[in-house]
């Protein structure tokens, strides 16, 4: 009882003092972070700019060091220059002053290394401090994961207090994911393996958990009795660009649904974990994946973008004139458990669409009986969790249209755009990568995928892909700059529902 009183007091005091949004930054323990593929695109665009921002915020202790390890022929000086350029390109000018940049770059080292050979490994082993937290970021293709793990082990710089971070794609199907898990397990325990899905690092995604489990308002309604359906959309305006080689073998199902959309679905649908702890959360997510039903062919729409006035077709971009790979996919899913029986989850994702949008929409049912006139308007609540643009949530509630003219109902948003609400500008919302990397250093796996979770997701994905391959289904062509093929709209229309607009 006692701590409840004091918690209330604290809340009252906070309320009286007004919001205190300046969070206290606690530096992490000193660490060595080795980035394999440290000269690559991901390192330049996301990993190092993210680390730089953590450094500026005082979260990186002075003793921390970042070691780039890649095939590129560079020395430490040239690597620092390379990363200095990356910061200039990817960190807004207002967020980097010369002093910070210079001091950050001093923490960088470089080792030229061959993941599959012998070059550089002795030098790396000498450089790495084994008495600190060590993290190895595998920012290279998955075909190199095994070789890296083995060599870290051979050179005595693996060991219990080190962690590895692995990037997507984690396997191509169940068999390859199993094999990858098996390879990594030869050298590392599961609690040392951090499989990144950067969607989990988004502020909003974590807020989904805060909103669901930190309030009494939502959870009692969070089930098939009160929720009509859920929509998850990840729409991109870009095409496959230079990634055709990889993408044409993967397609939207493997590239987006099996990992990112699946993670969003899990966090939306899971039962409350007993504690906000890595395995408690991941156990609940796993149960959702296992409860997913097979998708009927009639509940599935695949699409491929056609040529536009100014843009090439998918097939041209993929340089594969016969490609049947999908650049768009939409589906209706059933989760076979007590909570969700009868409430469908609709998923869609695609490239070259009308707008860039990632969101989860939870559409509640209409009140069981309306006391208002038929023409007063409809009223169903809707909670939107927006990952981009403008990370935030908005809850649509029904009110009376102000003014005279009788009882007319309108829906208005209770907008919770984080940046506005917290008095930050959009740049202040930490990037997914910076949060996740700090979690690695802190040893917190909550926002990383566990091996069995990834395998379960593939076990659900594989038969769907096998199904359309066997049937010889070709994707429907769709015009670029739209919401995908017409059939995807029908997927909801036939259930008397509609997708949210994808606005430019
Ligand atoms: P990239 O091709 O730009 O960089 C590859 C890096 O790996 C380079 O630093 C290169 O020197 C190094 N490398 C390649 N072969 C090597 C070897 N034998 N030994 C040592 N180093 C070697 O690739 P990227 O875009 O940075 O992607 C890295 C990984 O991250 C890939 O697995 C990719 O699928 C994944 N990923 C990338 C993005 C992205 O936006 N770029 C997004 C999600 C996941």
List keywords for this structure.
single chain; 504 residues; alpha/beta; six-stranded parallel sheet; 15 helices; globular; binds nicotinamide-adenine-dinucleotide
Furnish the topology, listing elements before pairings.
Blueprint lengths: L1 H16 L13 E6 L4 H16 L8 E6 L5 H15 L7 H8 L2 E5 L8 H7 L5 E6 L6 H10 L7 E5 L7 H12 L7 E3 L7 H12 L12 E9 L8 H26 L8 H14 L8 E6 L8 H5 L9 E6 L11 E6 L6 E8 L17 E7 L3 E9 L8 E9 H4 L10 H11 L8 H21 L4 E3 L7 H8 L11
Parallel strand pairs: 1-2, 1-4, 2-3, 4-5, 5-6, 7-10, 8-15
Antiparallel strand pairs: 7-11, 8-9, 9-10, 11-12, 12-13, 13-14
Helix pairs in contact: 2-3, 2-13, 7-14, 9-10, 9-14, 10-14
Bound molecules: nicotinamide-adenine-dinucleotide (NAD).
């Amino acid at each position: 009882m006692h701590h409840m009183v004091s918690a209330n007091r604290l809340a009252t005091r906070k309320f009286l003092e007004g919001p205190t949004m300046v969070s206290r930054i606690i530096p992490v323990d000193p660490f060595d972070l080795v980035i394999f593929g440290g000269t690559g695109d991901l390192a330049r665009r996301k990993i190092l700019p993210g680390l730089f921002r953590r450094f500026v915020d005082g979260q990186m202790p002075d003793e921390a060091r970042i070691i780039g390890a890649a095939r590129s022929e560079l020395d430490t000086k040239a690597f620092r220059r390379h990363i200095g350029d990356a910061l200039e390109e990817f960190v807004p000018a207002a967020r980097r002053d010369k002093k910070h940049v210079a001091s950050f770059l001093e923490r960088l080292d470089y080792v030229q290394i061959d993941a599959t050979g012998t070059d550089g490994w002795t030098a790396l082993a000498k450089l790495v401090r084994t008495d600190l937290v060590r993290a190895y970021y595998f920012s290279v293709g998955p075909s190199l994961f095994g070789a890296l793990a083995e060599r870290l082990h051979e050179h005595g710089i693996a060991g219990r207090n080190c962690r590895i971070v692995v990037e997507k794609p984690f396997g191509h199907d169940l068999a390859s994911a199993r094999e990858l898990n098996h390879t990594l397990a030869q050298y590392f325990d599961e609690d040392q393996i951090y499989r990144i899905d950067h969607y989990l690092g988004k502020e909003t995604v974590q807020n989904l958990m805060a909103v669901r489990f930190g309030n009494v308002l939502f959870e009692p309604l969070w089930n098939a009795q009160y929720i009509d359906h859920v929509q998850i959309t990840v729409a991109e305006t870009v095409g496959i660009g230079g990634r055709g080689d990889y993408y044409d073998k993967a397609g939207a199902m493997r590239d987006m649904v099996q990992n990112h959309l699946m993670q969003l679905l899990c966090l939306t649908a899971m039962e409350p974990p007993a504690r906000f702890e890595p395995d408690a959360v991941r156990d609940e997510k796993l149960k959702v994946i296992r409860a997913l039903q097979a998708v009927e062919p009639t509940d599935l729409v695949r699409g491929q973008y056609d040529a536009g006035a100014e843009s090439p077709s998918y097939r041209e971009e993929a340089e594969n004139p016969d490609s049947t790979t999908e650049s768009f996919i939409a589906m209706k899913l059933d989760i076979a458990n007590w909570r969700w029986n009868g409430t469908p989850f609709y998923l869609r994702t695609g490239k070259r669409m009308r707008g860039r949008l990632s969101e989860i929409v939870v559409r509640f049912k209409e009140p069981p009986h309306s006391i208002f006139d038929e023409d007063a308007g409809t009223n169903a609540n809707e909670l939107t969790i927006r990952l981009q643009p403008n990370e935030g949530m908005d809850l649509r509630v029904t009110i009376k249209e102000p003014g005279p003219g009788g009882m007319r109902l309108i829906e208005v948003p209770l907008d919770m755009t984080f940046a506005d609400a917290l008095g930050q500008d959009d740049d202040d919302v930490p990037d997914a990568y910076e949060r996740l990397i700090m979690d690695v250093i802190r040893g917190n796996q909550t926002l990383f995928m566990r091996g069995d979770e990834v395998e379960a997701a593939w076990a659900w994905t594989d038969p769907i892909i096998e199904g359309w391959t066997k049937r010889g289904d070709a994707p429907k062509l769709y015009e670029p700059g739209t919401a995908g093929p017409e059939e995807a709209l029908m997927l909801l229309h036939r259930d008397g529902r509609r997708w949210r607009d994808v606005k430019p």
